[in-house]
């Protein structure tokens, strides 16, 4: 087997394993809650019989290991359970499931919001990735110039500020003082693409500021690191044009670090998105997550956590795999 | 659309001007190498930068000196930003100049090679440290003190220069106490994370073997969950355990964030440790028959201070931002403790008053800006330290 | 003779500065250089002499953070210091080419060799891509690369160091330049590989009558390659002369001292008594890194007061043997005896006295001394640890040791390693080993990172200490000149086996094992005809890797 394929399969396997262990960690964490779900759903005033009924219904009378595998099986098949907020006593003991107007499942709750979040992340990536690469390459080319210094100070400031500070500054200048963009991002499913884009723009800009700064700095560092290598000097001493030195000699070797930078920052978006969605009241998965945390809606928290962790692991895995593929030493073994 | 047209027109003018600029430069300097070898892009950059600078100066002068007060209101924040930048620059310059004159030979040498950003950072860190330590002395009122006049706007009551919140607490005092609470808690959390992650990291690096494998794999798994998400999940559980006791939840939060962050510290400490352990002087000490304690404390640690200190700065920022974010989301530091993240959330709606009452709109930005200022400052200092240590290696 | 030929490069009063810590420090101070067409000029000097900077400046190129502050560089009448970037680019690669020290780092890992080879001719419109490929293959053949038709289609990491260096020479030749700068092209190579590369470079430079500047710190190498030699010291020119004249009658004191380094040799010691117990006896050692075997049945003895030199190329198992003796890498088979008593295989199981008796001096003094500890602390620790001395007694002993290694105690005791020169650091390493008062010291390539004059000082110090204290040395080195200077017995290793083993005088006199023979004959000598004679004697097929492969 080609060694690259072998390493890639190894990494994929490792990623799956990590996800599995992460699911165990989440399961253990959730199960360390005081009392149990049944009590939480019904409140303190519930009769013991009702609690027992729900315990049976939810399978809480089973041992922990059985429950874990049931839960894992449900997760894999897309059955994320029923949110506490949506559930009521009747839905557990009654027959409402047959009537079609039953409680909204977590899946039904998460799916549209997940789409919204992906849309926001996508818009951010489309703006941020080319912009940061361009700025990073320029800063590396003109390092120690005025442009580089200003860009560096700006980027450092943006990276280290909290998301909500950037968000409010943007709201202040772009929504309140100069009403160009809407400050609230209420989005509906039947909205046109243009309208949706316009309302997503402000949160996307906030996230762009955060990740662009980070990506720009890392791209700059990666390229400067590379420009110091002897083969770049060799290319210059061959009398090649600066453009050719960059495109033909630096870029193919910079791919791995740059891909890594992009993937890492897209992974970072996942965390950033939570706060930004709350600021702009953007109906994404991050906001749902925070709301569920506040009311301790365990099935939702659990599912969101797994989705976030899964996306995070996936992106890191992609970075890993892509940088392996872009390494000539591995692609062309001895 | 007209806005877009304006931008395009401006760019065309700048493009033309940059060609003129380069040509003039070549002609005036008699084709000096700098202008002769200047690419068009560089000339464009110069002219673009100059255009932006001219616009800023023009707008600033117009808003500051020409327009009357009501017309200038929308420019309040713009003026504040420009003046703030100038004041910060002067303060940093003065501080650096003072540092070059006063102090031991070592510190004076340090100040001589310091960029303005770093000296600004150090100045801000010192101010924050003073504020947080002496908050009780500096703040006009206590953080939980409630006054009869609730919801007063800033600038209306001389007793409360920044006004009061919806239940009548003095906002200026709460802002100052926020330094003590938010910074203090973040500092304690970071120390805890370092104690835990650092000692495990060095132990893993020195001993290697199964201990290293075990801890490293565990850390890998914990790091596969995004830290804010993991913190939120654990905070959900902690809040169930803590019940209505706010202070207990704050303690839980410190422990939770410390543990999550210690994984990052562990990674770094282990990497730094492993780089040192392969050095010949460690081998020489091992062959001498030295014990584990001597190896770690006398041989490895002294060489790890610089990267660890830089990491401490970065970790502190990260912890500080995580706590602020949690508080902002409503699950972090609990009332009645004053804290900046919570203040931002509570005051956020005032931002819509920006057009007619800028000072009111500034309130949430003040709390958020207080967070940003500290983290930016720490990052400036750390950036300088890292650059200095990497420069020495070359 | 050469003065009648046309001048190619003319450097006049060149001053170059380098930036460190916001300050500009001088690197080259007003050096003149003249190079005629078809001539090879050797630039020699110790590290920090500014050889590479001067070589690059003759191409009109300075590295980042380096600038030409004054003077002129003319290439074929073109003033390079004021030429436009485009004008210089048109010369570089086409009329002036460069061969770097590390070919492995100077080939772009992302492209095949031939693609990098053809880049200059195609970009400079010298020839078409297919012509350049054909020419490249021809050059590979002339440089005697194995499989010349295929080797160009490999990636750099798939080709060995010596071959890469020749491929880089071919690449420099691709446009048939007027001038090639060789910047230490063989420094990173083993001796047997080096000779092959030297022969190839000399051959091709002669074939195309190319002018060259050959930069090196190795006198014997430059003697083979250059028509004229220029000696540099800290950015100043010491002297310039024809190679033969320079070798036979150097004028300046510095040059004379450089030449004299090679003449240091210790008087032979009487052979040890037949029944004497060796201090260290290595018996049938076999060892492995994980599952990879590295040592096979290695045996030799080290007697009191004698020096055993272990020689071999990189990867031969020299340093691994030292790791087994110190107990860092427990052997899988065999035994190490100290004065007839077997030592535990793992150093953790050895007692304090056993550890004390075997000390080690390392190749890289930079990594061997803790950068955060003062010299006094570094030397004081073993004094305290083994001898139990404290306070004033410890200080006195440290001062005594500093005197022993010829460093003034008052001046050095409170300094940090970073404030010392390379040679001084190495001396501190020796003092740390002496502080344990051992009987046996392992010296692992202790002089190979040092300039020749400094290295000679270290060798003399080690020799004096041996005579005074009766120490035994295991001297690991790849440099046979060092072996000649200091060894009493020699062990030759190759691929983890001991190839040959005996007293020094026997080793330097034939007949011996073909590998020893190859190793010995591959060490360049100061005679400018040495390479020519050797090639005439053995033929190109019987040197270097080709000869190793035949064995």
What this model shows, in words?
The complex is a heterotrimer of chains A (334), B (394) and C (551). Chain A has 15 helices and no strands. Helices cover 77% and strands 0% of the residues of chain A. Chain A is mainly alpha-helical and 334 residues long. In chain A, helix 7 (106-141) runs antiparallel to helix 8. Chain A folds into two domains: 1-104 and 295-334, no CATH class; 111-294, MetI-like fold. Chain B is mainly α and 394 residues long. Chain B has two domains: 1-66, no CATH class; 171-390, MetI-like (MetI-like fold), CATH 1.10.3720. Helix content of chain B is 78%, strand content 0%. Chain B is built from 16 helices and no strands. Chain B has helices at 2-28, 33-36, 40-66, 69-72, 76-101, 105-112, 116-133, 135-138, 171-207, 209-223, 227-242, 246-277, 280-288, 292-329, 340-347, 358-393. In chain B, helix 7 packs across helix 16 (358-393). The mean pLDDT of chain B is 85. Chain C has 551 residues and is of the alpha/beta class. Chain C has three domains: 7-244, P-loop containing nucleotide triphosphate hydrolases (Rossmann fold); 274-357 and 446-526, Rossmann fold (3-Layer(aba) Sandwich); 368-437. Chain C is 39% helix and 25% strand. In chain C, the strands form four sheets. A six-stranded mixed beta sheet of chain C has the order 6-7-8-3-9-10, sandwiched between helices. Chain C has a six-stranded mixed beta sheet with strand order 16-17-18-13-19-20, with helices on both faces. Chains A and B meet through helix 1, helix 8, helix 9, helix 12 and helix 13 of A and helix 3, helix 10, helix 11, helix 14 and helix 16 of B.
